[in-house]
């Protein structure tokens, strides 16, 4: 029996809040707070009508530590779940340190004025979390999140040594729009328009955006063009997976998405600096995010599957071994259960499971942690129970899903 305070009321929060309500034997009191209170009230009403669970709601501007501390002291949660945006990670962490309450998020800190995300500024708070006697669990979504847990599971239960990891993120869903993003447009476009990067033998190699494309044959989905991107879980996995020689991350994009993105970039709509229009200061990327469909509205019209997983290669008992550990999710099945498409679903469910791990004491400690720092087994068991079943395909050591 525990109290949680969830901050943020977008697509991912809708799923996480519902899933917490569906596990009310653990999440006995749920409070939802965000910048726009009406969005919290809408989610709370849906949950009250369908699950008959009461959710308290508040308005909070999570950019302000004092405002957050006041709310935390009023609600007195056992855990704060940050499901707002990566820009709020540090303020919410600082509020948790002050109020001495544990913290969880789904994406690593991003500075609003710099299209760059890294764990450095969150890891540096480790000492303060330790001194406050609380824990922070970073990146409890799907990628980062479940992908870290898949790698941890491989390290703890399947391999003696891991040499290569390719994280594959395939969204084969179709929402019928010429261009829309599946989660917060600003965060999504900043991520995919940035330079790519991968890690090999202790060094980072940078690529131009979308420079490296491979065609992967995704089990249950088929062949998709997949582009090498930088993704945050690689920053912690390259430190925490022993014997690792290389880690890369690939994401699928359709041609229409890429053509639109290139065009928007060429005309300056992806800029994150201010421009003045008739005396009004505007950030083009923020304007674009307002014009695009709200990702939370895509659920009803998105059909198809996602397939996200890790190809892990290494050694077991002296022999080469290779596996693909993955989950597939059907957009419409997710929508029927939670009113959200699979990208929000695959993020919101692990956010709830991460919280459950902390509240049940299965994952515990004092300080700042990534997902692979803990025993993967209880989390993997929950994935199966909570709507994200996973599979392992044993591959031949020289087998590849890459299609030349
Ligand atoms: P949305 O844009 O749909 O929702 C974000 C919510 O945060 C909105 O309700 C917004 O309020 C609220 N918010 C923004 N700024 C503040 C603030 N200053 N104070 C309080 N609330 C604020 O985003 P998503 O639901 O799509 O994404 C949520 C998070 O999940 C993001 O951090 C994203 O990066 C992460 N994510 C992680 C993934 C993973 O696999 N790990 C995959 C996909 C997303 P308002 O409505 O008023 O604007």
Describe the overall structure.
The mean pLDDT is 95. The chain has helices at 11-22, 37-51, 65-75, 89-99, 120-123, 126-132, 146-158, 185-192, 233-240, 255-266, 284-291, 331-338, 342-359, 376-385, and strands spanning 2-7, 27-34, 55-59, 79-82, 102-105, 135-138, 161-171, 196-200, 203-207, 213-218, 222-228, 246-252, 275-277, 280-282, 305-316, 319-330, 367-370, 391-395. By secondary structure, it is of the alpha/beta class. The longest helix is centred in the C-terminal third of the chain and has 18 residues, at 342-359. Helix content is 36%, strand content 27%. α1 packs across α13 (342-359). Bound molecules: NADPH dihydro-nicotinamide-adenine-dinucleotide phosphate (NDP).
Characterize this entry briefly.
Helices cover 36% and strands 27% of the residues. It is an alpha/beta fold. The mean pLDDT is 95.
Q: How many helices?
A: 14
Q: Which structural class do you get from the secondary structure elements? A: alpha/beta
- The tally of strands reads 18
Low-confidence stretches: none
Output mean pLDDT.
95
- What gap, in angstroms, lies between the N and C termini? 53 Å
Task: Detail the topology: elements first, then pairings.
Elements: E1 2-7, H1 11-22, E2 27-34, H2 37-51, E3 55-59, H3 65-75, E4 79-82, H4 89-99, E5 102-105, H5 120-123, H6 126-132, E6 135-138, H7 146-158, E7 161-171, H8 185-192, E8 196-200, E9 203-207, E10 213-218, E11 222-228, H9 233-240, E12 246-252, H10 255-266, E13 275-277, E14 280-282, H11 284-291, E15 305-316, E16 319-330, H12 331-338, H13 342-359, E17 367-370, H14 376-385, E18 391-395
Parallel strand pairs: 1-2, 1-4, 2-3, 4-5, 5-6, 6-17, 7-12
Antiparallel strand pairs: 7-15, 8-9, 8-12, 10-11, 11-12, 13-14, 15-16, 16-18
The chain binds NADPH dihydro-nicotinamide-adenine-dinucleotide phosphate (NDP).
NADPH dihydro-nicotinamide-adenine-dinucleotide phosphate is lined by residues 7-13, 34-36, 39, 60-63, 83-86, 88, 106-107, 139, 141-145, 183-184, 187, 295-296, 343, 347.
